[in-house]
Amino acid sequence: MIYELYYWPSIPGRGEFVRLALEEAGAPYLDVARRSGKGSGIPAMVRVLSGRAATPPFAPPFLKAGRLLIGQTANILQFLGPRHGLVPTSEAGRLWTHQLQLTIADFVVEIHDTHHPISGTLYYGDQKTEARRRASAFLKDRLPKYLGYFEGVLGQYPARRFLLGSRLTYADLSMFQVMAGLRFAFPVAMHSAARHFPRLSSLQAEIVGRPRIAAYLKSSRRIGFNNEGIFRHYPELDAARRSGRSVSKPT
Amino acid sequence: MIYELYYWPSIPGRGEFVRLALEEAGAPYLDVARRSGKGSGIPAMVRVLSGRAATPPFAPPFLKAGRLLIGQTANILQFLGPRHGLVPTSEAGRLWTHQLQLTIADFVVEIHDTHHPISGTLYYGDQKTEARRRASAFLKDRLPKYLGYFEGVLGQYPARRFLLGSRLTYADLSMFQVMAGLRFAFPVAMHSAARHFPRLSSLQAEIVGRPRIAAYLKSSRRIGFNNEGIFRHYPELDAARRSGRSVSKPT
After folding, report:
1. What are phi and psi of A68, to 5 degrees?
2. Looking at the partner chain, which of B78, B79, B117 has a beta carbon nearest the beta carbon of A117?
3. What are phi and psi of B6, to 5 degrees?
4. I need a labelling partner for B157 at 20 to 30 A (CA). Which of A151, A156, A231, B187 fits?
5. What digits encode the pLDDT tens for the residues B143-160?
6. ipTM (interface predicted TM)
């Protein structure tokens, strides 16, 4: 079976969390909205969104897997996980991986809202004042709290390489993407706080070094970070440009 | 087995989505942070949050079920679902229910952020100006979009009583709570938009009428909406007080 992934073609966004899982799995998939021709492109995606599917997605990404149409990033990942060895087989292991993924999802919303605190339908330029305030609070309170949490999970046992221990799950792949995105969006804040999350940095490096991921990151299938997506680099929202102070220690 | 639910004792919040599922199931549970005595109260909750659990929750609610410690509301619900007949047994049915639940979770974040668009660590009074802007955008764009989506799901077949059809799932219970919360928070906007979501109103009434839920809602176990939780009533954020206009039609 060839999966069909539907997501906006010009940004990594939430689609990238699914893409990383498919790439690590070596699973064949079509990135439908990025293809041209009949039944492809954005029109094909919009057709599903505005159509009469039995399980309509609220928003991209969504995945077609045979007769299934699955929406919500974390839900897609928990569907793919057991099929491709990206999650333990035990119920406890699957629940814990999903719990981590949902916490990553919460984090991603907060990262996005640093540049869109008022509305996703307004431009950044129309909510810049509010964005400065929200980004400032985010860097001070939320970034250290989230990174501290995941660093703590990685630090539970000295030999732990991945969030669950010795074994990679889809949550590690998503965590890699979040770390890469944060370094793109907030280079100053992330640099000055880096000493507080050595294990997350190691995890990021570990994922980059996996053969399939390394090949993928070099390919044209990978969409780079840009200022249309979740992770955006606006220097005025980053730490030092505003206050000269670094973010606080993770709690 | 007696479940142990951990959540802030003074607000319905996200804990209520779990409570509704447990109540509908008739499952025995302890609402740990609302109890007094040894091993109870907020200190017991904080102890888990700051302790060294193998699967630490990022935030409440979390559920102890035997040896399992499960965090993230939607994750707890998908754990409880198959144990208590609150989700279909098929994989497709479980995925679809969870997809709906995660969309409800996204909606809940946006509802919360109408009164806290800048930071959860600041008081409402410290972000009132931004809250007005965000609430205005929410009532204009997001509320109709989300309610229109769920109304559309309910409207797929004329005889559909619940989101999945003839059978109640945990997502219906959560949807009830969201509708009740929205009517508390935005009575003017919800009243003027009510004609656009008759099926969601019927669903809300249907849930209220279920014997176990009806008994629960009358009991002291139910925590009423208040201005410390997700759903808050600030008249200045509701529709008519600001512009006199109703929210737009769901798209």
Report:
1. -85, 140
2. B117
3. -120, 120
4. B187
5. 999 999 999 999 998 888
6. 0.95
Q: What's this model's pTM, rounded to 2 decimal places?
A: 0.95
Could you identify the residue written with the tokens 């939430």? A14
CB B4 within 8 A of CB B30: yes
- Using the predicted structure, report yes or no on whether residue B243 has a pLDDT greater than 60: no
Q: Are B151 and B250 in contact (CB under 8 A)?
A: yes
Contact yes or no for B106 and A71 at CB 8 A? no
Q: Which amino acid is it at B135?
A: A
Is the pLDDT at A217 greater than 50, yes or no? Answer: yes
The reported pLDDT for the residue numbered A242 is 45
Query: What is the DSSP secondary structure assignment for residue A142, as one 8-state letter?
Result: I
Interface test with A, best of B50, B62, B72 (most A CBs within 10 A): B72
Q: What is the pLDDT of residue B161?
A: 93
The CATH class given to the A91-243 domain equals mainly alpha
- Boundaries of every domain in chain B: 3-83, 91-243
Instruction: Give A188-241 as a DSSP string.
Output: HHHHHHGGG-HHHHHHHHHHHTSHHHHHHHHSTTSPPP-TTSSS---GGGSHHH
Domains B3-83 and B91-243 share a fold: no
Q: How far is B70 from chain A (nearest CA, A)?
A: 7
User: For B3-83, which CATH class?
Assistant: alpha beta
CA distance A20 to A14: 11
Q: Does A123 touch chain B (CB under 8 A)?
A: no
Taking contacts as CB-CB distances below 8 angstroms, the residues of chain A near B79 are: 95
Contact B102 A133 (CB under 8 A): no
- In this predicted structure, what is the pLDDT of residue A250? 52
Alpha carbon distance B43, B37 (integer Å): 10
The CB density around residue B132, as the number of other CB atoms within 10 Å, is: 18
pLDDT given at position B5: 98
Strand duo A29-31 + A3-6: pairing: parallel
Among B92, B141, B146, beta carbon nearest to A68: B92
List all residues 6 or more positions away from A153 whose beta carbon is below 8 Å from its beta carbon.
Answer: A100, A163, B56
Calculate how close chain A gets to B71, using CA atoms only, in Å. Answer: 6
User: What are the counts of helices (DSSP H) followed by strands (DSSP E) for chain A?
Assistant: 11, 4
Cα(A19)–Cα(A25) distance, rounded to whole angstroms? 10
Four-CA torsion B18, A117, A104, A71, nearest 10 degrees: 70
Contact between B204 and B176 (Cβ < 8 Å): yes
Candidates A54, A117, A119; nearest CB to B118: A117
